[in-house]
From TrEMBL:
Belongs to the NAD(P)H dehydrogenase (quinone) family. It comes from Erithacus rubecula. This is NQO2 dehydrogenase. The lineage of its organism: Eukaryota, Metazoa, Chordata, Craniata, Vertebrata. Keywords: Oxidoreductase. Residues 8-116 form the Flavodoxin-like fold domain. InterPro entries: Flavodoxin_fold (IPR003680), Flavoprotein-like_sf (IPR029039), NAD(P)H_dehydrogenase_qn (IPR051545). Pfam families: Flavodoxin_2. It comes from the Eukaryota.
Amino acid sequence: QGNFLFAQFPLFWFNMPAILKGWMDRVLVQGFAYDVSKVYDGGLLQGKLSLFSFTTGGTKEKYANRGDIRYLLWPMQHGIMHFCGVKVLEPHICYAPACVSEEKRKEMLAAWTQRLKTLWKEEPIDCSPDWYFK
């Protein structure tokens, strides 16, 4: 349909992998994704949705020790997607799949499968500083 930008990636050094960032740098360019006077809610990609689905190397508790993982999402979701006018859905995070039991990995996959069935019904996040830093 062309209305959805979906990114699945491993969180790498608290960010998306360089190859994905490079793709965004080359594709989400001025004149296509944004214009100097048309950014955020006025960005050129209005009407599109985005979802970041990623895995981490560390557990949820390890990330929580350093603050909310949402802090890491600010530059990716707000600074790239929202800047271009894209509405952002709540990210899908699988914490430390390499460090959990096979049963837990199956639960992660089942939860992701279930979410995909109803994804189009989800409301985008607020994308304000309050959502990221509350």
